[in-house]
Amino acid sequence: MTPAEWGLAVGIIAHSLAILVALVKLTSWISTRIAVLNARLSNVENQVNNDITGRKVVGEMREDLAAIKVQIIDIRDDLKFLRTPK
Q1: From CA 66, how far away is CA 60, in angstroms rounded?
Q2: What pLDDT shows up at residue 86?
Q3: What is the distance of C-alpha 17 from the center of its chain?
Q4: How many alpha carbons lie under 13 Å from residue 39 in its C-beta half-sphere?
Q5: What is the DSSP string of the chain?
Q6: What is the pTM of this model?
Q7: In angstroms, rounded to a whole number, what is the distance separating the alpha carbons of residues 16 and 18?
Q8: Whole-number Å distance between alpha carbons of 43 and 36
C-alpha cells in the first residue's frame, strides 16, 4: 500500500471512531435525560396521589365531623331534657 492509501485508511478509521464516540455520548445523554424525566414524572405522580389521598381523607373527616356534631346536639338535647324540672 502506498502512503496515500495508508493515510486514507487511517483517516477512515479515525473518522469511524469519532462517529462511534459521538454516538456513545449521544446515547448516554439521551439515557440521562430519560432518567431525569422519569424521576420528575414519578415525583409529579406521587404529588397527585398524595393530593388525591389527602382529599379522600378530608372528605371522610367531614363526614365524621358531621356525625360527631349530630351526636353532640343529641347529647345536649338529652342533657337539657334531664335538667328541666318535671
Answers
A1: 10
A2: 63
A3: 39
A4: 6
A5: --HHHHHHHHHHHHHHHHHHHHHHHHHHHHHHHHHHHHHHHHHHHHHHHHHHHHHHHHHHHHHHHHHHHHHHHHHHHHHHHHHS--
A6: 0.55
A7: 5
A8: 11
C-alpha cell at 13: 478509521
Q: Specify the residue for cell string 502506498.
A: 2
Q: What does the alpha-carbon distance between residue 60 and residue 64 come to, in Å, rounded to a whole number?
A: 6
* pLDDT number for residue 64: 87
* Among 59, 37, 55, 35, CA closest to 47: 55
Q: Could you read off the pLDDT of 14-32 as tens digits, one per residue?
A: 999 999 999 999 999 999 9
What average pLDDT does this structure show over 33-50? Answer: 92
The single residue listed with the C-alpha cell 360527631 is 68
Amino acid at site 13: I
What pLDDT, on a 0 to 100 scale, did the predictor assign at position 60?
A: 84
